[in-house]
Design goal:
The structure holds two protein chains of two kinds. Chain A has helices at 8-24, 26-38, 59-73, 75-80, 88-109, and strands spanning 110-114, 123-126, 147-150, 156-161, 165-166. By secondary structure, chain A is an alpha+beta fold. The relative contact order of chain A is 0.11. Chain B is of the alpha+beta class. Chain B has three domains: 6-192, ATPase, nucleotide binding domain (Nucleotidyltransferase, domain 5), CATH 3.30.420; 217-441, Alpha-Beta Complex (Actin, Chain A, domain 4), CATH 3.90.640; 476-604, no CATH class. The chains are: A alpha+beta, B alpha+beta.
Chain lengths: 182, 613
C-alpha cells in the first residue's frame, strides 16, 4: 500500500481523539458504528470498494447485425475487397449497393434521431449536470457549466431497436452462407 | 361463438398480404381505433421479423436445404412450406420451388384450381406441388397463427373477419377464397371487393369529411393497380332519406396487369442497353435489375428535378466492386416505357389490342395482352356507359362512355406521382372532349395498405356504425341451353342463355326459380355452359336470351351438377330447376332442385378437368 500506516503513538492519539468525538458527536458515532459493521469492505481503499465493472458484450447481437448488413447491403463483401485496385467510379457504383442496402437495414431495425435538434454550426448552451455520455465537449474545456459552444456534430441516438428473433440453435457466426448453384 | 372484439380486414393480394384491425369496443362513430398487424415471418433462415406486409410467396424447400430449426416460427417447428419474405428471397434463386401469383391462378378459368399445379414448371416426382386453393389456405393460416401468437386471448377465428377479393373475381374464385377462409376457421366471415375496400379506407381516413367531398350525382371511378392485377369499379353517390348513400354500379374485367409488369419492362429496357455494351445478364441478375429499377422508377417519377438514376446490378459472388454492373435509368426511358407504354394518351374509343403474346407474358397465366392501362380503362367506361341510368339523380348522357366525376386511385403503382397525374389527365381529356366537367381526384391515404384498412373498417360499419356501399352482385349469370333444332352437320347447335341470377343480388338473398327444367342423370356429372354479364342489368330470372352483342356476355368456366344415387336408381333422369342465392359471406350459390321433394344439390363452379378423386 502506498500510504504509510500510522505509528503506535499516532494511533493512540487518533484513538483518544476519536473516543471523545464519539461521545460528543452522535452523527460521528453512528458513522463509526456503520464502519465497524461493514467490516473491511466499508473502509475506503479496502479490497472490495466499487471497482469499475466491465461486462462482456454478447457477440450474438453484433453477429446478427453483421449478417443483416451483409444480406441487404453486401457490407462484408465491400469491406473485404481491396479497393485500391479500382477506380472511383467502380467503387462508387458498388457503394450505391452498400448504401441502399445498409440504409434499408438501418431503417428497418432502428429508429434513430439526432441527439441535438439544433443545426450544426448553431450555438448551444449546456446547463449544469448535462449528460456527458450524450454530449461531448471539446476544445477549450475550462471553467464550470453552463457551457456555451458551437454544435459541430448533432450526434445520433437510437430510440428503438427491433432486431429479428433468432431460432434457438441457429448459427449466427455464418453471416453469409456460401452459395452453390446446382 | 363469443362476441367479436375486433373487426379484422385481410387483403389477400397477388403479391402481398396485409392485415388491419379495428378495436370495436374502443371505436365510436367516425372515431375509429385502428391498427395494422406487423406479421412475424421468416426474413432469413433462423430469423423471424415482424414486417408490415406478408409477401404472397410460398417456397417448398428441399429436405436438405435448410439447417434443422432454421425454418421454425414462434408457433410452429420446421414443418410445411415457407411463407413470406424468405420465400420470396430464396425463390428468386430457385424458382422451380417457388409458388407466386397464386391468386391469379385461383381466377384462371382454364385450370382446376384444386389441382396441385403450382409451381407450374416443377417436376411432380421431385416437388410436392400445391393447388391455387392450397396457397390461399397457407397465407390465411400464416396470418391466423401470427394473429393468435400476438393476441393469445383473442382467437382470430372468433373475430369479425373481412377478406378482400378483386371485383373481377368469378363466382368460382370467390367461393374458393371463402372456403379457404372457412377452412382456416373464420366463423364470422364476409368477402369484400378490393376497390370498395379502397373507398371505405378513403371514407374512414376523412373522419366524416367525405360527406362534404362528394355529392349526390357523383360517379366515383376506382382504379386499383396492384402488383399483379388492375381492378376497376364505379360507385355512384345517391341519397336516401336525406343522407348520402353509395352504390357500386359496375366492375371491370379481370386484367392481369400490374406494377410488376412495369418493373419488369424497365428491367428489359436496361438489359437491352447493357447488351449493346456487350454485357449479358443471367436470370438472377435480371431479378436484381428489376429490384433496382423499382427504386429508380419511384425516384424519377416523384422528383421532377432528377434526370437519371444509376442502377447497379451487384455481382453474385463476394467480389462486389469488381463484379457489379452499372447502368443508368433515364427520365426519357421511364417516360417512354411507363408513362407512354402503360398509360398512353389515347382516344376514348380506343380498345385493348389482342396482339400476339409479347415479352411480358409468362407461360400459363392469361396475362393482359395489351399493357396500356388507359386502353383497358377506355374499354371499361365505354362498356359501362349506361351504368348509372337507373339510379335517381343520374341521367343517361347518351355519350360514348360513362362520365366519372371523381377518381380514387389505389395500389403501389400510384406512389409515382407522375403516373397518378397521367391517368387523371387522360380521363379528363376524354371528359373535356365530350364537353363534360373534369373529374376530381379523391386524395387517398396509404396506397399499399388501404385495402386491408378499408376491409377492417367495413367490418366495423357492418355493425351499423357508418355508411355502407350497396350494389349486390355486379353480374347477372346465365346457364347455356341448347336450343331444340334439327342437327345440321358441321354446325354447332346455337346456344341460348337462361338467366338464373339477376344483376344486383344482395347478400343473403335468394333468386326466384326459373320455370325451365333440365334433365339430370342420377349418379352422373352433368355440365352446363355458364355465362356472366356485367352490363345486362334488367334481365330477370327465367329470361332466355337468343342472341347478344359481342362482349355483352362473357363465357365462364363450365359448371357441374351431380345427383348422388342415394335414394334413386342410377341412370334415372330427374327434371330439376336451378335456384341461385347469394350467401351471407357474399358468394354465389347455385342449386339443383327436383320438381318435388325437399332435396337439392349444389352445383359446382370449380370443375375438375381430370377424372378421379
Amino acid at each position: 500500500m502506498a500510504e504509510s500506516t500510522p505509528s503506535v503513538f499516532h494511533r493512540l492519539s487518533i484513538a483518544l481523539a476519536t473516543f471523545w468525538r464519539i461521545l460528543v458527536d452522535p452523527q460521528f458515532a453512528s458513522a463509526v458504528a456503520a464502519l465497524r459493521l461493514a467490516g473491511p469492505a466499508g473502509l475506503p481503499g479496502g479490497p472490495n470498494t466499487e471497482a469499475p465493472s466491465f461486462s462482456e458484450v454478447e457477440p450474438n447481437a453484433a453477429l446478427q447485425l453483421l449478417g443483416l448488413l451483409q444480406q441487404e447491403g453486401r457490407f462484408i463483401d465491400f469491406l473485404e475487397e481491396d479497393v485500391t485496385a479500382y477506380g472511383d467510379d467502380e467503387v462508387g457504383a458498388a457503394a450505391r449497393v452498400v448504401h441502399e442496402g445498409c440504409k434499408k437495414t438501418l431503417r428497418q431495425h432502428f429508429v434513430i434521431e439526432p441527439v441535438r435538434s439544433e443545426a450544426e454550426g448553431e450555438r448551444v448552451t449546456l446547463a449544469e449536470g448535462f449528460d456527458a455520455s450524450a454530449v461531448r465537449v471539446t476544445g477549450n474545456v475550462v471553467g464550470q457549466p453552463p457551457f456555451s459552444g458551437r454544435l459541430t456534430h448533432t450526434g445520433w441516438r437510437v430510440i428503438e431497436s427491433k432486431l429479428p428473433k433468432v431460432a434457438a440453435g441457429h448459427d449466427l457466426s455464418i453471416v453469409a452462407a456460401a452459395e452453390v448453384e446446382l | 361463438m363469443s362476441e367479436a372484439q375486433y373487426a379484422v380486414g385481410i387483403d389477400l393480394g397477388t403479391t402481398h398480404c396485409a392485415l388491419s384491425y379495428v378495436d370495436l369496443g374502443s371505436s365510436d362513430g367516425d372515431q375509429v381505433a385502428q391498427d395494422l398487424m406487423h406479421v412475424p415471418q421468416l426474413a432469413a433462415p433462423g430469423s423471424v421479423e415482424e414486417l408490415p406486409l406478408l409477401p404472397s410467396f410460398l417456397y417448398l424447400p428441399h429436405s436438405d436445404e435448410f439447417a434443422a430449426g432454421d425454418l421454425a416460427l414462434p408457433w410452429r417447428t420446421d414443418e410445411g412450406p415457407i411463407v413470406g419474405e424468405l420465400a420470396r428471397h430464396v425463390g428468386a434463386q430457385t424458382p422451380i420451388r417457388l409458388v407466386s401469383s397464386a391468386k391469379s391462378w385461383l381466377c384462371h378459368p382454364g385450370v382446376d384450381r384444386r389441382a396441385a399445379i403450382l409451381p407450374p414448371g416443377a417436376s411432380e416426382e421431385e416437388i410436392a406441388r400445391l393447388s391455387p386453393y392450397d396457397a390461399s389456405l397457407h397465407y390465411l393460416k400464416h396470418l391466423r397463427d401470427a394473429w393468435n401468437h400476438l393476441h393469445p386471448e383473442e382467437d382470430l377465428a372468433e373475430q369479425q373477419v373481412t377478406v378482400t377479393v378483386p371485383a373481377s373475381f368469378d363466382p368460382a374464385a370467390r367461393e374458393l377464397t371463402a372456403e379457404a377462409a372457412q377452412a382456416v376457421g373464420f366463423e364470422q366471415l364476409v368477402l369484400l371487393e378490393e376497390p370498395q375496400a379502397a373507398l371505405y379506407s378513403w371514407i374512414q381516413e376523412s373522419h366524416g369529411e367525405w360527406r362534404n367531398q362528394v355529392h349526390v350525382g357523383d360517379m366515383i371511378l376506382v382504379i386499383d393497380v396492384g402488383g399483379g392485377t388492375t381492378d376497376l369499379s364505379l360507385i355512384a353517390v345517391t341519397e336516401q332519406d336525406g343522407s348520402l348513400e353509395l352504390t357500386r354500379v359496375a366492375v371491370g374485367e379481370h386484367i392481369l396487369l400490374g406494377g410488376d409488369n412495369m418493373d419488369l419492362a424497365l428491367a428489359h429496357v436496361l438489359k437491352g442497353k447493357l447488351a449493346t455494351q456487350g454485357k449479358s445478364l443471367d436470370q438472377w441478375q435480371i431479378q436484381a435489375l428489376t429490384h433496382g429499377c423499382r427504386h429508380a422508377k419511384e425516384t424519377l417519377l416523384t422528383d421532377a428535378s432528377v434526370e437519371a438514376v444509376p442502377v447497379v446490378v451487384p455481382s453474385r459472388g463476394a467480389r462486389l466492386i469488381g463484379g457489379s454492373i452499372r447502368s443508368e435509368l433515364t427520365r426519357g426511358e421511364v417516360t417512354r416505357t411507363l408513362i407512354d407504354g402503360f398509360f398512353p394518351e389515347i382516344a376514348v374509343n380506343s380498345r385493348p389490342a389482342a396482339r400476339s403474346r409479347g415479352a411480358l407474358t409468362k407461360l400459363g397465366l392469361p396475362y393482359a395482352q395489351d399493357p396500356a392501362v388507359t386502353r383497358h380503362l377506355a374499354a371499361f367506361l365505354g362498356k359501362q356507359c349506361g351504368a348509372g341510368e337507373d339510379l335517381p339523380g343520374f341521367t343517361s348522357e347518351g355519350g360514348a362512355f360513362l362520365h366519372p366525376t371523381a377518381v380514387l386511385l389505389n395500389g403501389g403503382v400510384f406512389k409515382a406521382a407522375a403516373l397518378a397525374e397521367r391517368v387523371l389527365k387522360v380521363v379528363n381529356d376524354w371528359l373535356t372532349a365530350d364537353h363534360a366537367p373534369p373529374a376530381r381526384l379523391l386524395a387517398g391515404g396509404d396506397l399499399d395498405l388501404s385495402v386491408a384498412r378499408g376491409a377492417a373498417y367495413y367490418g366495423y360499419v357492418r355493425r351499423g356504425r357508418g355508411v355502407r356501399i350497396r350494389g349486390g352482385t355486379a353480374r347477372a349469370h346465365y346457364v347455356g341451353v341448347e336450343s331444340a333444332m334439327p342437327a345440321v352437320p358441321g354446325l354447332e347447335p346455337p346456344v341460348q342463355a337462361l338467366c338464373v341470377a339477376p344483376f344486383g343480388m344482395e347478400e343473403g338473398t335468394e333468386a326466384e326459380i326459373p320455370p325451365q327444367e333440365f334433365g339430370l342423370v342420377v349418379g352422373e356429372p352433368v355440365r352446363f355452359r355458364f355465362f356472366g354479364s356485367s352490363v345486362r342489368r334488367d334481365d330477370q330470372v327465367g329470361d332466355l336470351l337468343e342472341d347478344w352483342s359481342p362482349g355483352e356476355l362473357e363465357e365462364l368456366e363450365e359448371i357441374q351438377a351431380t345427383l348422388p344415387a342415394e335414394s334413386r336408381a342410377p341412370g334415372e333422369v330427374i327434371p330439376v330447376r336451378l335456384r341461385a342465392s347469394v350467401t351471407e359471406v357474399g358468394t354465389l350459390r347455385l342449386e339443383a332442385m327436383p320438381r318435388s321433394g325437399p332435396e337439392h344439390w349444389k352445383v359446382e363452379f370449380n370443375v375438375r378437368n381430370t377424372a378421379g378423386d
